[in-house]
Amino acid sequence: DNARPILEVRNLQVAYGGIQAVKGIDLHLCEGELVSLIGANGAGKTTTLNTLAGVVPHGGGEILHRGEEIGRLPSHLRLRRGLALVPEGRGIFTRLTVEENLLTGAYTRRDPEGVAADIEKVFALLPRVKERLHQTAGTLSGGEQQMVAIGRALLSRPQVLLLDEPSMGLAPLVVEKIFEVIHAITRDGMAVLLVEQNANLALEVSERAYVMDGGRITLTGTGRQLLSDPKVRSAYLGEE
Ligand code: ATP
């Protein structure tokens, strides 16, 4: 039953000291769904992803994974339960090789055969990563580093991939390639929650999306509905 949410967020609140960055949001994600979170700088998108991954603690509300509350678990236990984050800026270890970077994604796993099989899957999905395997990650192009970051997250064998601005700083053709990879990932049943500054692109590829503004979700709908919504067009798609 893939209509049942794999991840559900209820009334999530997050504050940094006195600054309320997320002010009680609700969202959900089903198996195999590609859902995006769009909105202006400072809307609270990155904070939301980091809170789901357990990198930032929440100040109220619930995070349910397959109906079970996980909102107080440390990040490594959420990773083991299938929530993997590809952070803003990619979080690559620049002095390690590509291979070493990939293996950090599997550090919570106890099944070396499974990890070896998943490495082969990552190579099939991201051939460039295989070509660069023994190179120091800091010498790769931005697009290649993004692929390593995605490959590393896939090595935790996630059910939910939390992707923060994968297109940032990349040329259009490279962005296109990254989005093809994201699409291929969801075909395997994985759910992806995508934070994107490039609202147009995000809405084109997403089944559903949430618009965030000032720590709140102000609009939600299918990618197509939001693409044709006049409020979205003027505020986020750069139209007059
Ligand atoms: P961006 O696209 O720029 O990352 P965003 O929508 O992801 O924007 P957040 O980065 O989540 O927004 O920021 C939400 C709010 O929280 C902003 O007002 C920001 O200044 C504040 N904020 C974010 N990180 C911190 C932090 N570590 N300490 C204090 N305030 C923070």
From TrEMBL:
GO molecular function annotations of the record: ATP binding
Ranges where the ABC transporter domain occurs: 7-239
Organism for this UniProt entry: Thauera sinica
CDD domains: ABC_TM1139_LivF_branched
Gene3D superfamilies xref list: P-loop containing nucleotide triphosphate hydrolases
Family, per entry: Belongs to the ABC transporter superfamily.
Keywords: Amino-acid transport, ATP-binding, Cell membrane, Membrane, Nucleotide-binding, Transport
UniProt name for this protein: ABC transporter ATP-binding protein
Signal peptide: none
Source organism phylogeny: Bacteria, Pseudomonadati, Pseudomonadota, Betaproteobacteria, Rhodocyclales
InterPro entries: AAA+_ATPase (IPR003593), ABC_branched_ATPase_LivF/BraG (IPR030660), ABC_transporter-like_ATP-bd (IPR003439), ABC_transporter-like_CS (IPR017871), BCAA_Transport_ATP-bd_LivF (IPR052156), P-loop_NTPase (IPR027417)
Pfam family, one: ABC_tran
Keyword Glycosyltransferase: no
